[in-house]
Specification:
This protein is of the alpha+beta class and 250 residues long. It has 2 domains: 16-79, Arc Repressor Mutant, subunit A (Orthogonal Bundle); 89-239, Chorismate lyase (3-Layer(aba) Sandwich), CATH 3.40.1410.10. It has helices at residues 16-29, 42-49, 53-65, 121-126, 173-180, 199-204; strands at 69-72, 76-79, 105-115, 134-143, 146-156, 185-196, 212-222, 227-236. The strands form 2 sheets. It has a 6-stranded antiparallel sheet. A two-stranded antiparallel ribbon has the order 1-2. A hairpin with a 4-residue loop joins β7 (212-222) and β8 (227-236).
Length: 250
């Protein structure tokens, strides 16, 4: 069983439910259990540790109060330790840029390919000619070992020749555009919408197909009004909360 390594001492004064909570937290810290793992039922824990249901109920209540587990009626209890990131909505596309203070996010490239000229979302948003190809770069960003954000980058081939030979693995979007290819960025135009995740993106984010997600679409505009890049950022909606600020202009 998942908690068989937890040791409880009935001879000390510390309450058993607190010992159980500490044991579960240790399992989280050592990554014995991870986000969205199903936890043993109350009856299973009672049988494992030979304790009363009251003790288990107290332990699970404390873990729920601390936001570490959630209970789904008819399905049981699940670990909810996926982290939350506090970011301004306008800067989500900065995720792979160290100078913005997001170094806790580790990016992993999962695909880079040259896309032939066709009516793809990338080509339409890049506003390229019908006979021009573009490059697609896909990355997943991790917080600790949690996949928290999925990003697709589209680059026009005319502005980014031999892209597969460029240092896209280690460089941020900005280092790649301005540092390696020497294009000057003028501004970023972003829109925000909600939808659901496709099977492939859900798999990359370790969540379920059709899960609610928030999408940020960003155009990177150059000084000559050309679209240097198009960026799609997906954040699982289950783990995203946002607040709206209003201002009194009187």
């Amino acid at each position: 069983m998942i908690f068989s390594s937890i040791l409880l001492d009935k001879t000390i004064t510390k309450p058993l439910y607190e010992q159980l909570v500490e044991g579960i937290k240790h399992a989280i810290q050592t990554k014995t259990i991870k986000h969205h793992d199903r936890l043993p039922t109350e009856s299973e824990l009672c049988a494992l540790f030979h304790m009363s249901p009251t003790v288990v109920k107290q332990a699970y209540k404390k873990l729920r109060d601390e936001g570490l587990i959630e209970t789904v009626k008819g399905r049981g209890a699940y670990l909810t330790t996926r982290p939350f990131l506090l970011k301004d909505l306008n800067t989500f596309f900065y995720l792979d840029d160290p100078v913005t203070g997001t170094r806790e996010l580790r990016g992993k490239t999962i695909l880079v390919e040259r896309q032939k000229p066709q009516k793809t979302p990338g080509r339409r948003m890049l506003q390229t000619a019908e006979d021009e190809a573009n490059y697609l770069l896909k990355k997943v960003f991790f917080y600790d070992y949690f996949p928290v954000i999925y990003v697709e980058y589209y680059y026009p081939e005319s502005l980014f020749p031999k892209f597969t030979e460029a240092p896209y693995q280690d460089n941020s979007l900005f280092e790649l555009i301005e540092g390696h290819y020497h294009h000057l960025i003028d501004r970023y135009d972003s829109t925000f919408s909600a939808g659901t995740l496709s099977e492939s993106i859900a798999l990359a984010l370790d969540t379920k197909k059709g899960a609610v997600a928030h999408t940020i679409r960003t155009k990177v505009i150059g000084q000559n009004e050309e679209v240097l890049a198009y960026v799609l950022t997906y954040i699982p909606g289950e783990y995203l909360a946002y607040e709206v600020k209003t201002y009194d202009l009187r």
